[in-house]
Records
---
Amino acid sequence: MREYKNNCTGPETVLSKGMFHCLFPQNVVLTPQLNEVYELALAYYESKILTEEELIQNGAYFARIGDQFTNHYLMCTGESVRLPHYSSSRLKSFFQKNQFRTGYATHGLFPYRGKFHPQMIKAPINDMGLKAGDTVLDPMIGSCSVPIEASLMGIRSIGIDASPFCRFMTQVKYNSLTFPTDPLNHALKKTDKVFEIFSDFANQSDQTSKTESGTHSVLPAQQSLMAEKENTLNQVANLIGDDLPEIFDFLFLAYLDSAGYAERSKKKSPLTLFQAILERYVFVVKKIQGVMHNFNLTPSTALILEGDSRHMAIEDCSTDGIIFSPPYSFAINYLENDAFHLNCIGADIDQLKERMVGLRGKTVKEKYESYIEDMDKLLSECARVLKPSCFCTIVIGTNDNQLSKALGIPKEKVKGLHKIIVELASKHGFTTVKTLARQISGISNTMRNEFILFLKLTDQ
């Protein structure tokens, strides 16, 4: 019989205990559904960087520390995102399988394309060493994952986006953590009337947009929309008995969500979709506010700005960490995807093309070149506003096959976007501390892999 050095290294002992006892303390229990290598790595780093109390308060991948459940686990358990009975089995399965990754807190409001898994953002915030009272910057907020996660962790945040719709959506998600919910109960009883008011406003916005298209009358058009919005706000306020702008914006976001859904699917009427989505929105808000009440948790401040990330109105050396994901400009046309929503809020789409990273240029090659130019400017700004010796974490997708076709060069000569970003970052004083890879499932036809880059600014 084969001899082993001691009983702890025999096959039966090693296999029965598994690898987790080698990586984590015995009193640690990981969250369910953790099944990817990058998740295990992020959890391992959390366990080494955070204290047990910090793991309970802010850990991303832990269900229990000793006999105490973590905030993340309690935030995600219970009934998941409430879906209408006619939802597809695929959609229901997605939320069941990703209960601890996405959909919790107010992340479940408006399913924006290309969004982070919020759980995946919470872990790097911890792994960068950010603590309560620090400030984290996301110069491309998209759907608000970073500000929401940071605010629930006691970390201040600054979020910037060139898209006025992304800024609007982010502000709604953040406001929803604290505004009163009684007016929402009134709105649920009168969804048909609320829907009618917003439909009239959207039609007016669309007509104004078409009328002013191709002209230089942008300011009068915006003034007309603002006046119409004020009138719409008053109608909704009279209907539900509350004139809080935060409540109006929340209801309007639900309407925009349902209108976008109705454009993609003709199976249900727009009103039916609005009713179901508003019910889901209200459920989401009441659930997270109940959890926050039980935790005695007050969200940290989040400053949400509309602006150009290549020229940020932020002071030098004023942030303790940065985390963002550049737009997948070769995979998703964000302006085309958000056209209806942008028109409803009176945005000038032609101006946005010049402000949004990677959208300038006519050919794919020109867009690629403008993307690299824009990212160079953005990384220079990140180096300026970040404190020395602090981290900038970038989550970026890449597809060598697609870049090969776009640039007209053999695949083996293509540099992945993540490698290009690392090279650009090094010009501005960043060094690469760690790179984690993960496969993309949602848009894998255009983005095969995604990389989490932990970059550290040198102490100059």
---
Amino acid sequence: MNSTLETLKTRGFFQQCTNVDGLSKLMDEEPVTFYIGCDPTGPSLHIGHMVPFFAYRHMHAAGHRGIALIGGGTARIGDPSGRTETRKVLDYETLDANAASITAQLDRFIGFNGETAFNVNNKDWLADLKYIDFLRDIGSHFSVNRMLSFEAYKARMETGLSFVEFNYQLLQSYDFLELYRRHGCRLQIGGDDQWGNIVAGVDLVRRIEGAEVFGLTFPLVTTADGSKMGKTLKGALFLDPAVTAPYDFFQYWRNVQDADIRRFLLMFTFLPAEECEAMCAPDKNPNEAKERLAWEVTALIHGRDEADKAMAGARAAFGGAPGGDKSAMPRAELPRSRFEVGYNIVELFCDAGLVPSRSEGRRLVQQGGAFVSASDGEFSAINDTAALIGLDKLNVEGEITLRAGKKRYLLLTLK
């Protein structure tokens, strides 16, 4: 197998390939132009969106030519893959703004140079398509029976699939055809939920151009307990620091399960595979590997300075380890008057943003997961939902630290 494909396989980016031997041979002979598509359905990417772009960087580093396709055209319809209901339709102005935002995020991560790494927007060729001509020239190559055999459509047939969504596969396949014609693109890569769309594009290029192109997918990433990777109490782990603070981003990786450390080091960092394996050896402390993972991913997304600050804040929160710096910890400001009369513990955790509702706050307290620091900095669990927190909890700096469970900290200041 080609060395680049071996790297992808070693690091977890390999699930299915339309013709692995043919692709391997092509990649041995010449640099291959490949693409990844991403629809601008929101103003920020989340870490799940980034999985293919980590693979992108490995391929680009090996000398191949990468295209990041921004789906400003396909997003006008919405991909039904992996969804139980129709996506919310966004106006064109919002889609354009989202496209600009995520293009900037990808540029920071990839470093587009306009030649071997660049982005395009499929709005350029999809927005002004003539429908009758498109149906005649492109739609005639698609079998409805075959389209319905793909999992993305089969799953939606039970809950309802709109005719507009049914066209999505035709448009994505047309993207591959256009990229082949415009840039000599021979490979599409993406998550395994895109397998049906990718295979359809490979087939369309073969039928119309008589050329062999390829598709490669990798597993959808879940955590060791089977939950969706990148999901937090506050929702998805977004790249935009205004949505997910770098400290919270760091903490997600710092708190992954031990069983996920090796896999995440290989997928979400560019550390040599041998170093990743060594950090996960049985005689190594998993917390050291988690901290390294958290620093590396945060540095890649937010920069080294933010990664350093997040690490210092985490060390400060977890007991004042050397290098601790409380300035990076999540903060909230609440009225001093509430503490003067006694702040109910449930309302305190809810108002501070550590729980989304009063009912969740009561559950946290009853289960022994609500901790408040004393004036000497030591934490004590509060098990009584009627407990009142007063000014006696203030430390010498006039602050109170709250902890929800074992891992989520928040620094309170009073106003």
